[in-house]
Amino acid sequence: MTDWETRAATAGDIEALMEVRAAAMRADLERLGRYDEHRVRQRLRDQFEPAHTLVVEADGALAGCVALRPAEDGHWLEHFYLAPHAQGRGIGTAVLTALLDTADRDGRRVRLNVLRGSPARRLYERHGFVLEREDAVDVFLVREPRPRYGWFGGESGARKGRGAAS
């Protein structure tokens, strides 16, 4: 089992999170012929908003991050990166489930974009995201809030958990 938790990001997290982003995105960006050592880090630095970002830790170590930025018609799920050592262990699924549970409780739509051909798209589609549009590089997905009914409609947005290790 893998222990994981999230905590609020701070401005001091940026350097470590830029390295996680570079490692997590390298294969997809290289496949698209768009990997640039400086740019992959700078994009996170330019868009990093600690107030909307959670740091993911697994087994006591930095594992990644995710941002849920408020928008006029819902939220944008952004900067969801897991370090290679944390991938395939159920952490991403657990974190995404907790975030979507919160959005469902709030009745908020969630949008995101993912690189064309990224295996992450399958994760999002399994969680109810559908194609909104696409361009030469990105696929834009949207998920409408799901109503919560009955006994299972209570609090479920835990930010700490255990997942099956692969």
Structural class: alpha+beta
- Classify the oligomer: single chain
Mean pLDDT: 87
Largest sheet: 8 strands, mixed
- In whole angstroms, the N-to-C terminal distance is 9 Å
Question: Keywords, please?
Answer:
single chain; 31% helix; 8-stranded mixed sheet; globular
Q: What do you see in this structure?
A:
Helix content is 31%, strand content 33%. With 166 residues, it is α+β, with helices and mostly antiparallel strands. An 8-stranded mixed β-sheet has the order 6-7-5-4-3-2-1-8. Helix 1 (14-31) packs across helix 2 (37-47). The longest helix has 18 residues, at 14-31. Residues 153-158 have low confidence and may be disordered.
Topology:
Blueprint: E1 2-8, H1 14-31, H2 37-47, E2 53-58, E3 61-71, E4 74-82, H3 91-106, E5 110-115, H4 120-126, E6 130-134, E7 138-143, E8 160-163
Parallel strand pairs: 4-5
Antiparallel strand pairs: 1-2, 1-8, 2-3, 3-4, 5-7, 6-7
Helix pairs in contact: 1-2
Write a brief caption for the model.
With 166 residues, the protein is of the alpha+beta class. It has 4 helices and 8 strands; from the N terminus they run E-H-H-E-E-E-H-E-H-E-E-E.
